[in-house]
Prior knowledge:
Two copies of one chain form a homodimer.
Chain A: E1 3-4, H1 7-16, E2 19-22, E3 29-30, E4 33-34, H2 38-47, E5 51-56, H3 63-72, E6 83-85, H4 86-97, E7 103-107, H5 110-118, E8 122-123, H6 127-130, H7 138-142, E9 150-155, H8 163-175, E10 179-182, E11 188-191, E12 194-197, H9 199-210, E13 215-216, H10 225-240, E14 252-256, H11 259-268, E15 272-276, H12 283-288, E16 295-297, H13 300-307
Parallel strand pairs in A: 1-16, 2-5, 2-14, 5-6, 7-8, 7-9, 9-10, 10-13, 14-15, 15-16
Antiparallel strand pairs in A: 3-4, 11-12
Helix pairs in contact in A: 1-13, 2-13, 4-5, 8-9
Binding site for substrate (chains A, B): 219
GO molecular function (chains A, B): metal ion binding; phosphatase activity
Pfam family, one (chains A, B): Hydrolase_like
Amino acid sequence: MSIRLVKETARRLLKECDTFVFDCDGVLWKGADVIPGAPLMIKHLKAAGIRTLFLTNNSMKSRSDYAERFAGMGFEGVAEEDIISSAYVASEYLAAQLPAGSGVFVCGASGIYRELEKVGLKPCKPFEEEYKGKAWDLHEVESIPLDNNVKAVLCGLDIHMSYPKIATASRYIKNNRAMFVATNADSTLPVKTGFLPGAGSCVSSISRVTGQEPIVTGKPSVDPLASILNVAAQLYDRKRSSNVAPFHPSRALMVGDRVDTDMMFGRQAGMRTLLVLSGVATEEHVQEHTSEIDYVTSDLGEFVHYISDV
Amino acid sequence: MSIRLVKETARRLLKECDTFVFDCDGVLWKGADVIPGAPLMIKHLKAAGIRTLFLTNNSMKSRSDYAERFAGMGFEGVAEEDIISSAYVASEYLAAQLPAGSGVFVCGASGIYRELEKVGLKPCKPFEEEYKGKAWDLHEVESIPLDNNVKAVLCGLDIHMSYPKIATASRYIKNNRAMFVATNADSTLPVKTGFLPGAGSCVSSISRVTGQEPIVTGKPSVDPLASILNVAAQLYDRKRSSNVAPFHPSRALMVGDRVDTDMMFGRQAGMRTLLVLSGVATEEHVQEHTSEIDYVTSDLGEFVHYISDV
């Protein structure tokens, strides 16, 4: 049974957890709107000496883009190193697997390209720029030249996904034995008016052709995300000369708005989990997924209300 | 154990089967090349009073396009009505389910549009023409207007598949409760240099977003394909004043080059099955799928060689 957050529970969590890991969209903000109370919540945690880290499956922006977004929305003291995006995790993972300078065929947005470059890999020129305005027939798709330096296909949410691009990614994987990595596998991207296809839709079109499932580096996958989270916690301590105990999942709280990504990751990584109802999940999810959710609260505004006079 | 075709078996099949149902690509031709002996095989069967029907998962052409192709490749006496394409079956199926004049959002090629028009449904203007040359952002994709007359999404192999198109198809299915039908779900399209994404790749990107699997009207699905095959056999008889017994699967032979579509359909529809090795399947498939394959031969040239002095 999930525990509804009240003043007493909220304050106990602050004593028992030295690390709070936050999902971003649906938790801190929703689209362009800040969730009321969220910046204050982060401020309170920092003042209480609690590590605050941010874990997002969104692969569209780079970590430096995110740092700017945090500042612009009124979150104080959030550094690039505190933010762990799926594009960053995927890039770190690929850098550990491939020789420096290896080519990567990308299905995704600019955030992925920037993170790959930062770790010394070479993303191909975006497919849609390479073949801008081209009208295709099947024979031309079949004849697209492959670059032998490409050792991996990295797929995220890609607004430029197209049949020729799916074909080329699939040929890299099957013909050239390129690694197949996905930033995340979310089926949908929630938007104001409903939903759009998530990264999982782009990924599944390639999986279906190749018969291969990708290595997923976003939530709810634990590996390699959990180890990168650990590294991020160490960097956080070094930067702030923190004197809390070294990071350990049992003393960490995963705060998120989705069961299938945030709560699943938190549970499988050995963390406590707090579901906020300000994003995707509803009361129904709370009833259905009691084993993944330790705590529930309506939003961070409620949480900070309970702890604000600590 | 599958039986390798020899002279005796080939001639016995001719006595015991009054209907031969052929897959096209990989059986009668391979890309632009006719399989040697295939036109002669069809000619012999017709001369022997055996029904010859043609069943293809390819949804790119209409049945009249196909009839022209048969004639151009030297196959004599093949009428439009003898050809059962997945686009035709899907259109017949939708016409039976929806009010006349209903709109259909199509992910696929011209063959689908023509078959839909023939049964009195209204395919939307192709998405790629409607938004030709447009550069998209996520907000614009989210704001694409939906047509309330659209009652179904029909998906086949679509060289114009794109993120905005996947999004729109998914919104029709989830928001407007449109039916979701696929001409077929082949994972790949075999081509000379290897493979391209098949209809199944286009379909799976939508399935992943909507959480819904489509009704598949192509092989290996039995329903509604088997009943339309039955109707085609009756038309065949009427046109040719045939005096063989009414069509029955137990006296029909399914001839194809793929186990996962042709052999599976033949088996599940209660027909005998003959695998030809002139297309996708290899000797390895023969060893692995003995329960789906009754007979095996290298190609139709070998078959006609055995029966040519009947």
